[in-house]
C-alpha cells in the first residue's frame, strides 16, 4: 500500500517537473516555419560600438513609414562568425509585412535608421541579401540619415560650406569631433562624452545660440527630433567614435 502511494507521488512529481499537462501543444520547428524568410549576410563595421539603448536588428515593417517594427530580431555578437561575417535570419514573417530591413531600433522597437532594405511583398522563396561590407556605425547612421539629407546642402555639398563647416560624407567626422567652434566662444562643435556642451547639440536643440545668427531648429522635422537628435546625443556621450 505505502509503495503504491510512493509510486503515485513519484509519477505526479515527474508530471509536474516536465509540465506534461499544461494543455498546450508545442509545434516542432518543421511545422512552425510558416511565413516568409529573409537571410542577411555581410561584414558589419561599427556594429560593436552602438550605445546600449539601441538594437541593431533585422526587422519587418508593413509600411515604409511605420514608426514601429511589426517583427524584429536583435543582432548580437553571437551572430558574428569566425570569418567576421554576420548571418541573420528572420523567419515566420507574416504576409502583411512588406519590407524587411537591416536597421536600428530603440528599446521600444521604434525605427531609428535603416542601412539596407528588401521588398518582400511578392517573395515566395526565402530571400537572401548579401550586404557585402557595410559601415553601420553610429556616426555613419547620422551621416546617411541626417547630415546628407538635411545639413550638407549648406555645409559643403554645394559651392559653399557655411561657417567653414563640412558636414559631407568623409569630412564631417574630422570637422566636428574635438574641433573648436568658430562662432561660439570656448566651445567645441562636438565635445566627446558631453553632448550638452557641444555646439552641434546646441544648434539643434536651442532656438538661439549666442554667436550663431541662424536658427537651425526649423530644419529638424518632428520625427527627427524624436529619433535622430537623441541618436546624436547618444553618439557624443558614448565617445563620439568614428566607427
Ligand atoms: C540654410 C543653410 C544651412 C543649413 C541647411 C544648415 N546650416 Fe548650419 N549653419 C549655417 C550658417 C549660415 C551658419 C553660421 C551662422 C553664423 O554665421 O552665425 C551655420 C553654423 C552651424 C554650426 C556652428 C559652426 C561653428 O563653428 O560654431 C553648426 C554646428 C551647424 N551649422 C550645424 C548644422 C547642422 C547639424 C545642420 C543640419 C541639421 C545644418 N547646420 C544645416 C547654415 C546652414
**The CATH C-level class name of the largest domain:** Mainly Beta
Largest sheet, strands/sense/barrel:
4 strands, antiparallel
Share of residues in helices: 25-40%
The proportion of strand residues reads 15-25%
Shape call: elongated
Low-confidence stretches: 9-23, 26-32
Number of helices: 6
Can you write the helix and strand succession as a string? HHEEEEEEEHHHH
Q: Helix- and strand-based class?
A: alpha+beta
Number of domains: 2
The CATH topology of the largest domain corresponds to Immunoglobulin-like
Mean pLDDT: 90
End-to-end gap: 73 Å
- Number of E-state strands: 7
CATH architecture of the largest domain: Sandwich
Query: Which small compounds were modeled alongside the protein?
Result: heme C
Radius of gyration: 25 Å
Q: Tell me the strand order in the biggest sheet.
A: 3-2-5-6
Describe this structure in words.
The protein is α+β, with helices and mostly antiparallel strands and 243 residues long. It folds into 2 domains: 36-135, Immunoglobulin-like; 139-237. The protein has helices at residues 2-17, 29-32, 138-151, 172-176, 199-205, 222-237; strands at 36-45, 54-61, 71-74, 86-93, 99-106, 111-119, 127-135. A 4-stranded antiparallel β-sheet has the order 3-2-5-6. The protein has a 3-stranded mixed β-sheet with strand order 4-1-7, with no helix packed on it. β5 and β6 form a beta hairpin. α3 packs across α6. The longest helix is centred in the N-terminal third of the chain and has 16 residues, at 2-17. It is elongated. 30% of the residues are buried. The model is unreliable at 9-23 and 26-32 (pLDDT under 50). Heme C (HEC) binds at residues 150-151, 153-155, 162-163, 165, 167, 181-184, 189, 199-200, 203, 212-214, 216, 219.
Amino acid at each position: 500500500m505505502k509503495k503504491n502511494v510512493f509510486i503515485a507521488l513519484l509519477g505526479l512529481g515527474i508530471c509536474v517537473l516536465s509540465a506534461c499537462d499544461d494543455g498546450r501543444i508545442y509545434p516542432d520547428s518543421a511545422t512552425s516555419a510558416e511565413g516568409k524568410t529573409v537571410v542577411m549576410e555581410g561584414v558589419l563595421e561599427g556594429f560593436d560600438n552602438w550605445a546600449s539603448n539601441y538594437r541593431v536588428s533585422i526587422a519587418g515593417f508593413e509600411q515604409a513609414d511605420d514608426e514601429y517594427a511589426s517583427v524584429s530580431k536583435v543582432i548580437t555578437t553571437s551572430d558574428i562568425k569566425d570569418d567576421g561575417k554576420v548571418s541573420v535570419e528572420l523567419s515566420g514573417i507574416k504576409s502583411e509585412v512588406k519590407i524587411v530591413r537591416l536597421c536600428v531600433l530603440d528599446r521600444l522597437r521604434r525605427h531609428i535608421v535603416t542601412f539596407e532594405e528588401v521588398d518582400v511583398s511578392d517573395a515566395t522563396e526565402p530571400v537572401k541579401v548579401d550586404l557585402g561590407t557595410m559601415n553601420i556605425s553610429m556616426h555613419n547612421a547620422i551621416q546617411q540619415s541626417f547630415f546628407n539629407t538635411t545639413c550638407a546642402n549648406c555645409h559643403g555639398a554645394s559651392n559653399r560650406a557655411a561657417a567653414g563647416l563640412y558636414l559631407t560624407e568623409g569630412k564631417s567626422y574630422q570637422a566636428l569631433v574635438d574641433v573648436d567652434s568658430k562662432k561660439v566662444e570656448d566651445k567645441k562643435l562636438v565635445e566627446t562624452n558631453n553632448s550638452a556642451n557641444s555646439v552641434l547639440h546646441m544648434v539643434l536643440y536651442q532656438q538661439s545660440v549666442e554667436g550663431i545668427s541662424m536658427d537651425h531648429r526649423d530644419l529638424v522635422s518632428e520625427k527627427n527630433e524624436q529619433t535622430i537628435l537623441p541618436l546624436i546625443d547618444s553618439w557624443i556621450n558614448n565617445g563620439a567614435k568614428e566607427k
